[in-house]
Amino acid sequence: MNGPIVAGQRTDALFDEGRRFSLELMEEGVGDVMPPLLTRLAQINDHQCKPQKSASEIQQIAYRCVKAAAKRYGDEKRLSASVLQRLSKHFFIHQEAWGTHWSGKRVRIDAIIQPRDPSGWKDEYPRLGVEFKNYHSFNPSFDIKDYTKWWVQCHDYAETNFDGHGYVFVFPYNGFSHYRSRTKSVADSALAVRFWGRMGVGEIQPNDLLFVMHGTNKIWSERNGVMGGTTMSMERKFGSR
Fold it and tell me: Which residue has the higher pLDDT, 25 or 97?
């Protein structure tokens, strides 16, 4: 994008470039595209827009760009297929596993995975639940509704007896790291990670497919293999902990 952008053209020009850049970042596997997108739009606004848009206007355009790019990029199936393919080198993949929640309702999780070589794990037959969302499309809001709905869904799965697998810890892909980058609040994100960890919900961090519980307990990663899983049991416990 070269040359000055005059009034009447600014919004469309910024949106078109922002959507293109957002899609490029998503295809590169960037976990949260908002920070680099805001930087990119701010640079264009500062150097080319006559007159300049306000910071709040740039932010609103950025939100629209991310939502549009997320819709075009694909849904959860595309994301899960890519991640599960990488995990399949190390785990048996049981996709769309069904189970019975304590309420009696039948529910289905995206996948339950089982180590191909369980010798380094504490448990003889460890199982881990995996869940995906198209988090790029999440709208930031005061009540963080998109995130809390996802975490509650994962918690329901953590209290489900899955057919042939039993109860499992559930690891949403980028479930808390994306929230942390959006809120910019270390205290809020730390509380969320700790609280939901006690409720059986961890996270797969995109970098190196790192499985984490409570924000600090590193269970397994693509690069290092089993880590905290050697001492931390993957069997769910209920009641006093």
Answer: 97
Whether the predicted pLDDT of 186 surpasses 80: no
Half-sphere exposure for 105 (CA within 13 Å, toward CB): 7
Q: Which pair of structure tokens corresponds to residue 49?
A: 């827009």
Q: What is the pLDDT of residues 129-139, one digit of tens each?
A: 999 987 766 76
How does DSSP classify residue 166?
B
What tokens appear for 38 in the block?
A: 């805001």
> What pLDDT, in 10s, does the model give residues 168-182?
999 999 876 665 665
Distant-in-sequence, close-in-space partners of 154: CB < 8 Å, separation ≥ 6: 129, 131, 170, 172, 175, 196, 201
Domains, the chain, ordered by start? 5-73 (no CATH), 76-230 (3.40.1350)
Contact status, residue 228 vs residue 238, Cβ threshold 8 Å:
no
pTM over 0.70: yes
CA separation (Å) from 31 to 102, 162, 176, 179, 227? 33, 29, 11, 10, 23
